[in-house]
Design a protein that fits this description.
Length: 126
Amino acid sequence: MVFAAVVVALEATALLAAAVWYAFELFSGAPVLTFWGAVFTLALLLAFSAWLFAVGHFLFRGYRWTRAAALVAQLFVLIIGVPTMTGGLVLQGAAMAIPALAVVVILFRRDVIAYASQTAGASAAL
């Protein structure tokens, strides 16, 4: 479970770094088709990064809903990573696809399912 939570948190960090780079390029005058479309893309990158940080945190804490959220995120990473590998950027694609595939396998292990079966309970989660 710790490995899966760390991989999700690292993916969130990478996405945040991409958002920062995208913002730097956007506000330094890089040409874009529509400025507000680029701002919307930046907002989506930041929102998805925050969502992945939350998923990683609550996955580590063992909440049930995080398994599905982490699985969806890993499937999206695989959807981007595999064509990246087959498109000629083998190292970049493998850096995305291999950890995502490992997390998918880990999420279906019996001990991970048992650990991630907690519900919110009496204490507030957020």
